[in-house]
Design goal:
about 425 residues; alpha/beta; Rossmann fold; six-stranded mixed sheet; 15 helices
């Protein structure tokens, strides 16, 4: 009997350890509570899931994004929360993988009872999409430009960044109009695209191909590669055979650094064009300032009308956290405000906070309309809603008018590394993307 008890006890301990280890690996149960010393019951709090790759090569960017959400949630809680209930953020580490994103998001629904998600990124959207559809949980992503989102579904899918279908066209527009947008007195005669075989990267493939046809350019070669390899010698050799004068490189920061440095070592002296994943200070640190001297990048940006507000928010963020606002910081601020204002409107108008009522109220606080009052932050929106007036949230990245599938349109900045830092050299607006 003692032996049986020992075996059963040991088995129980092992199973518990296995569960805890799995939770740590998947990012399950990593809960951040705001302005509350105890979690309280579900009736006393509003749990919101935050789905981002908190570990791995995107961890620093994700933590910077999370700090923006924390600031927004603390502002909500400081001014009474949602109907007197505190907003609680529940982290879900997707590890930049669709399969883990599916597991983690479902866990946050089943165990933590989240009412909505902020996130995910393009890297895990394919997996999280099933959770959204099956459980009818609203999501608002500040980072997912993946084209798979474009028509993923109605009512529960929203994002505050434009689709890669526009981002790809912006890259092509800059390359084919290099005198206007890149400041170069020349035309590129040989354009090669190197693209990683992940949904988040392949998302750019068709928009760039179609854009080349539409804007009078052409691809000399298209090279798809497996991500996460230790060497890309074969792919680099194939790219250089095309004698490119510019390479469009779409991949993870790690792979991009390997490819770029090895290509330069092989004698390449031309230009590069990269996407949002590389257009940040962390990429310069990884690659080295010498490797990125001839690099252009594309990044969502704010319109001229909001520049003063953007600069004020950047200062507030740095004063609060002691670090600079990173990529997707402004779109995250907009996503957070829209979600929390939608929740508040439910409390003030509908009375029953649920996933369905929150989903329905996201466009009601974001989209324009007659007799609506324009607001630019949560407090301003709260004060207006409490007077029984309706609001039209105006974001740091401009108007957030969602279409039927939760998409928005914002301008793009064309950036270049100069003196070791990214600098904006041109802006591409929607009308620039029309032939």
């Amino acid at each position: 009997m003692k032996n049986k008890r020992f075996v059963y006890g040991t088995l129980a301990v092992c199973l518990l350890a296995l569960f805890l280890n799995a939770s740590a690996v998947l990012g399950i149960g990593n809960e951040t509570r705001l302005l509350s010393s105890s979690p309280g019951s579900r009736q006393e709090r509003v749990p919101v899931g935050v789905l981002l790759p908190f570990s791995g090569q995107y961890s620093r960017m994700s933590e910077n994004i999370f700090r923006v959400i924390q600031m927004s949630a603390e502002e909500v809680n400081k001014h009474g929360g949602i109907g007197g209930r505190k907003v609680v953020l529940v982290k879900g580490d997707t590890r930049a993988r669709a399969d883990i994103g599916a597991v983690v998001s479902q866990r946050l629904v089943d165990v933590d009872g989240v009412i909505a998600f902020i996130g995910p990124s393009s890297l895990s959207f394919t997996g999280v999409k099933k959770t959204i559809r099956n459980n009818k949980v609203p999501m608002i992503s500040p980072t997912a430009g993946i084209t798979e989102f474009d028509r993923a579904g109605r009512m529960y899918f929203y994002r505050t960044v434009p689709s890669d279908s526009l981002g790809g066209r912006a890259i092509v527009r800059a390359i084919t109009g290099c005198q206007l947008f890149l400041g170069l007195d020349r035309r590129f005669s040989s354009v090669v695209m190197m693209i990683g075989r992940l949904p988040a990267m392949i998302s750019f493939k068709r928009p760039i191909q179609d854009g080349m046809d539409e804007f009078g350019g052409s691809l000399t070669d298209l090279i798809e590669y497996e991500t996460g390899k230790d060497s890309y010698e074969e792919e680099i050799h194939k790219a250089l055979e095309a004698a490119p004068d510019i390479i469009i490189l779409i991949g993870t920061p790690r792979d991009s650094v390997l490819i770029m440095n090895a290509t330069l070592e092989a004698g390449y002296e031309g230009w590069w064009f990269v996407t949002q994943d590389q257009t940040n200070d962390e990429f310069i640190r990884l690659a080295g300032s010498e490797s990125v001297r001839h690099v252009y990048g594309v990044q969502e940006t704010s319109p001229k009308e909001t520049i003063d507000r953007v600069e004020a928010f950047k200062k507030r963020f740095k004063d609060y956290w002691g670090e600079n606002l990173g990529p997707f910081g402004t779109s995250t601020y907009d996503a957070s405000n829209i979600l929390f204002l939608a929740m508040l409107r439910v409390e003030l108008r509908d009375g029953e906070l649920s996933r369905e009522t929150v989903a329905k109220n996201i466009p009601r606080v974001a989209n324009g309309g007659s007799n609506k009052v324009e607001v630019t932050d949560f407090l301003e929106g709260k004060q207006t809603l409490e007077t029984s007036k309706e609001i039209n949230y105006q974001g740091l990245d401009g108007p957030m008018d969602f279409d039927d599938y939760g998409n928005v349109i914002t301008p793009y900045a064309i950036r270049q590394v100069r003196e070791g830092v990214w600098r904006t050299i041109a802006t591409i607006n929607v009308h620039d993307l029309k032939r």
